[in-house]
Amino acid sequence: MRSPATEKRAKRVALAAVAGAHGVKGELRLKLFAEGLDTLAAQQHVFVGETERKLVSVRPGGKVAIARLEGVGDRSAAEALRGSLVEIDRGALPPLEEGEYYHADLIGLPVVDTHGEAVGHVVAVDNYGASDVVEIEKATGKRFMVPLTDNAVPEWDAERLVVNADFVD
Fold it and tell me: Distances in Å between the alpha carbon of 58 and those of 17, 35, 42, 73, 157?
């Protein structure tokens, strides 16, 4: 059973990670996980670690984004956050169109095959160009990948992901 803190954290989506400090006034260099910084820039508050902070500003910074958070006023405070995830509540994300999904919605889903046999659970979603690929971990700890196509994954919803038995490794 999950603790209330774990349940609350599970409803968050990581948009970036703190890569380090930028300058001496507390700005942060962020490695973005999403394309562009529009979703991050639209937020008023973010969670850094377990602390909710006001997002004062965010701007492009080459290969990273540069952000200023309320309460982070110098380089030392910014460096102390290095490696922390920058997250938002799942409910703060823009609504989806039909057939769209957020990777975070798939992570942790139980997986069964087309015969109804339990396979494992989704541990990651990647994209190598052609389509998204789900990484599934079996109870044994062995992992395998399946393309998120209609042939390989004929159905899924908020409760489970069904994988064509021919794709189960």
Answer: 14, 14, 10, 15, 34
Domains of the chain are 4-91 (2.40.30.60), 103-167 (2.30.30.240)
115's CB contacts (< 8 A; 6+ apart) are 165
DSSP H helix total and E strand total for the chain: 4, 12
Phi, psi of 163, rounded to the nearest 5 degrees: -110, 135
The per-residue pLDDT for range 85-100, each reduced to its tens digit, is 999 988 888 888 887 7
Structure tokens belonging to residue 76: 């030392």
Question: 11-33: buried (b, 16+ CB within 10 Å) or exposed (e) per residue?
Answer: ebbebbbbbebbeeebbbbbebb
Mean residue pLDDT across the chain: 88
Distance (Å, whole) CA 163 – CA 149: 10
Q: What is the pLDDT of residue 105?
A: 85
